[in-house]
Amino acid sequence: MACFQPRKSAPAPGQTGQRMDTHDEPYTPVRCHWFYKQIADGKDSWKPFSSEDSQKLEEAHTHGADDEVVVATEGRRYDVRLKERRRHAIYWDQAPSEVRRCSWFHKGNKEVFYTPYTEEMSELLEDSYMISMSLNEWKRNLYLPTGETVILHNPKLMTQHQSFSFDCPPSPSERTQPRTLKRGVENIPVEIPQGEPDIVDHLVFMVHGIGPACDLRLRGIVQCVNEFRSAAHTLIKSHFCTSDENKAVGRVEFLPVNWHRVLHGESTGVDRDMERITLPSISGLRQFANDTVLDLFFYNSATYCQTILDTVASEINHLYYIFLQRNPQFTGAVSVAGHSLGSLILFDLLTNQKTAAESNNAAQDGKYEEQYEALRSLSVSDCSSCESLEEVLKSIGLKEHLKILQREQMDMESLMLCSERDLRDLGIPLGPCKKILNCVNKWKHRSVAHIGKHSSRTEEKDSSVRLIQESRPKTSAVDYQHFDVGIGQVSINYPQLSFHPQAFFAFGSPIGMFLTVRGLKRIDPNYSFPTCSSFYNVFHPLDPVAYRIEPMILPPDVEVAPMLMQHHKGRKRMHLELKEGLTRVGSDLLGSLRTVWQTFSQFPVPALAEGNDMPTAVSTAEEMETSPLEQDEKKIIQVGKLNGGRRIDYVLQEKPIESFNEYLFAIQSHLCYWESEDTALLVLNEIYGNDNCKSPQQ
User: Fold this and answer.
1) What residues have CB less than 8 Å from 387, skipping those under 6 apart?
2) Which of 103, 128, 335, 340 is catalytic?
3) Could you say which architecture CATH assigns to the domain 369-457?
4) What topology is assigned to 200-353+486-552 in CATH?
5) pLDDT tens profile 185-226
6) Is position 340 annotated as part of the catalytic site?
7) pTM value?
8) Among 174-188, 192-206, 526-540, 588-602, which is the least confidently predicted range?
């Protein structure tokens, strides 16, 4: 391309040039940088890749392979297909975005950011620039295919003008200011993001709460987790700088878990059913309630509670499997975090995970599974009524998708193991996916029925089939009976996670309220999650949805304030320090007045008695000198085993403006966790340890 292989050529027709008096700088090829298009709020914008990702893309482009080249970017969360010039998300559903190799940029008079030219247009501009530099001729006119004209005034000043006819010049109202051109990404005001380390130290799955939007800007879980990840990455650079410089720490990967899309999707049909019974009045408010508040009722429903739990667990396990495939060198731990209702979902899941002792029957179940699969494969192979893959697709009118499945070496046996997401990843539309899965389910039932007909071959085989079928989980109704552990969750077939979490973070969580509504008054201090050793309940002091956990564990006569979280800048907010200072001054003043009053109110007593009472008076004064806040901080409190004896409730420091009107900032406080550096710092401290953390002031 012209960017890297300058070629000498004569001026193009229609180009004019004017030789300048000086010619100091020789021509050097432009340095290209890779960008991708981002669509937000209906507006297009171009974002640069990091320098490391751009270099990887440039190297792959330079090699010029004929086959498709896939380059992993942005912490291996996206794949860029060079020939397609498309950027594909790996862990979540997102439309592919355009990728462009950029070297020339333009900006209008009223625009804020520069927009890159297409690669073809950039080559034309670079060729014209090379000729002007080589011949030292400027004031050149380059007529673009769009009809506009570019004037190269000098190496630093280049403009693009709108086309018009000399016979019919534009009126003053139709005239526009020329667009400014810049050559090279180093000449435009753009912030190139920092690259992410290849080594992942820890993996955190984040589950959202009610509704599709997670903050006041109505962003989804993917955008909010991206911002939380970015904040954590910045905090590692600032608070763990020594370990970061020594390459002792890598990065923490945060992945979003979306269950709202499945619950409100076509598979359940719940939105369609709700639409039929929703009143037409105040449609906006009713639609908002159907999308958000109803999720709380769905979670208390027998059917949809099972759907939500299955979706969250299967999505976490699916993402975990993909992550291990893309990061085979990963040896770190895994944690989970949930916001609002998402924290309650994770709480119920973690409460019902099986320990190693409880999973001793898994090996025996596996033996029965092998016997069942062997019997099923033997019987199905003998079944003359089972159609081939081609016959099945032909019967439902989807034979055009046969080549796609055959390319992946699929048959009816392997198709039985595929999910809807697997078929969608192959490029099959949603409608055909539903038809194929429905047909596969019918085929599966016929196969099992055929096994039943031939199960009388041996009594042993028949008992094996019956035993494995009985051992498989079945969806049960919610009976709201309490388990022996005493945390009061509903009776559901809880799926198992593929890992044991290191920590569980609950943000703005209503867990305490739900446990109380379920009839649980107190959590056993000896209770802990079967597979998770740490639990943090993080909340904003004005969050109307958040509830505490520690009062349900501690004795009723013990009242302890939640732990005040560390500010990411290393100190308390000014208004909190002022409030604490006033409290301390008031306490000292009250103590002094009490001491003076006791001195004047005492009757004369023998000198020996006064001497004996002096230590008591001094000790009383010393006790009064210590503020209640300092006394609380000095207390070492054991809060059960749910967090290994450590504190569970952690409260954020409210902002000064939030203290003026608590009701005004109530809703915002429930959605603040995704943008909170203090929350991200708490997560990093749990992962890396407080000893390695140093505030910027330190």
Assistant:
1) 395, 412, 443
2) 340
3) Orthogonal Bundle (1.10)
4) Rossmann fold (3.40.50)
5) 999 999 999 889 999 999 999 999 999 998 888 899 999 999
6) yes
7) 0.72
8) 588-602
